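In the design runs reported in the main text, the only information available to the sequence generator was the tokenized backbone. The following block is the verbatim input for one such run; it is reproduced so that readers can re-run the procedure and compare outputs position by position.
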């Protein structure tokens, strides 16, 4: 599935999604480069195990080529299309269903 985030609007397969209830889906779409920049800022302020987890996340995200990733709202899990296309598409389908597009 083709996924974009333009002007704070989620677009899946050229369908503009107006409402994304992240509590129901469990993930939010994030631009990978923005997340990398945020992690770099946060790492400097983090301590202990949080810092270690953030460094691991940063290494993982730097290795990806994806423009967007889904980020879990409950954990530090990321779903990238290049790594797990099936799960990535499943999340997209859930969002489309919640917005009565499918």
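Verbatim output:
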């Amino acid at each position: 599935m083709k996924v974009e985030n333009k002007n704070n609007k989620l677009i899946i397969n050229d369908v503009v999604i107006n409402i994304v209830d992240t509590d129901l889906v469990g993930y939010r779409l994030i631009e990978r480069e923005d997340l990398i920049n945020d992690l770099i800022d946060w790492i400097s302020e983090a301590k202990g195990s949080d810092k270690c987890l953030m460094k691991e996340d940063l290494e993982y995200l730097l290795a990806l080529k994806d423009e967007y990733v889904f980020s879990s709202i409950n954990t530090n899990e990321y779903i990238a299309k290049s790594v797990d296309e099936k799960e990535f598409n499943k999340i997209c389908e859930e969002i489309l269903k919640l917005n009565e597009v499918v």
